[in-house]
Amino acid sequence: MKTFARYFLRGLVIVTPVALTLWICWWAVSSIDRLLDFGVPGAGIVVTIVAVTLVGALASNLITRGVVNAVDRLLARLPFARLLYTSTKDLLNAFVGEHRRFNRPVRARLDAHGHVWTFGFVTAEGADRLAMPGFVAVYLPQSYNFAGNLLILPEKCVEPVEGDAAEVMAFIVSGGVSGSAEAGRKAS
After folding, report:
1. Pick from 96, 122, 152: which residue ends a domain?
2. Which is nearest to 121 in space by CA: 91, 163, 160, 156?
3. What pLDDT was estimated at residue 135?
4. What is the pTM of this model?
5. Mean pLDDT (the chain, rounded)
6. Most distant CA atoms of the chain, gap in Å
7. Domain range for residue 113?
8. End of a domain among 96, 127, 155?
9. How many CB atoms lie within 10 A of CB 178?
10. Number of domains in the chain
C-alpha cells in the first residue's frame, strides 16, 4: 500500500501541472473562439494575436501615435474607466513596457539583527517620488497569489540581488520552490 501511495503521489505531482496548464490553455483558446466565432478551432486566438500585434505596430507609427495618445488621454479622464485603465496600463508597463519597474530585484532585511529577510523589487527611490530621502519603495509579491505588499524601507536595509528579475519573481511567487537553489546562490 505504501508503494501504491508513493507512486500515486509521484504521478499526481507530474500529471497535475500538465493537466492544469493544458486546461487553462484550452479554456483561454475556447473562450476567445466563442467571442470571435470563425468556425475553425483556434482561429480566434490567431486573429487576436495578429490584431494585438497590428495595434502595437500602428502605435509605433508616427502618424497613428497621436490617435493612441488621444484615446489614452480620454480614458485617463473618465471617472471609473480611469481607475481600471491606468491600473492595467501601469501593471503591464511595469512588467513588459518601456518603463519596466520589476527589473531591480532586492532582498530586504526586516529586522535589526538580519535574521528575517524577504525578496522583492525596488519600484521607486525615496527622494524621487516618495519625498523620503534615504528610503526606497520595495514591492513584495505574494507566493501563490496575484497580490503583494509595498514596503517603504531605509536604503541600508535593501541589498541588490544579482540575477534575472523573472527568476526572482518565479522564486517569490512559488513560495521559494521554483529555482530555490539558484536564487539562494545569487542572493548570497
Report:
1. 96
2. 160
3. 86
4. 0.53
5. 80
6. 70
7. 105-187
8. 96
9. 14
10. 2
The single residue listed with the C-alpha cell 520589476 is 102
- Give the SS3 label for residue 148: strand
Contacts of 117 (CB under 8 A, 6+ apart): 107, 108, 109, 110
Burial class (CB in 10 A: 0-12, 13-18, 19+), 30: middle
- The stretch 118-134 carries a mean pLDDT of 78
Whether 188 shows a pLDDT value over 80: the answer reads no
8 Å CB contact between 45 and 33 = yes
**Whats the size of the chain, residue-wise?**
188
* Residue 125, H or E segment: strand 117-125
* Rounded CA separation 126/134 (Å): 6
Pairing type for strands 135-141 and 105-109 reads unpaired
DSSP state of 128: I
Residues 90, 24 within the same domain:
yes
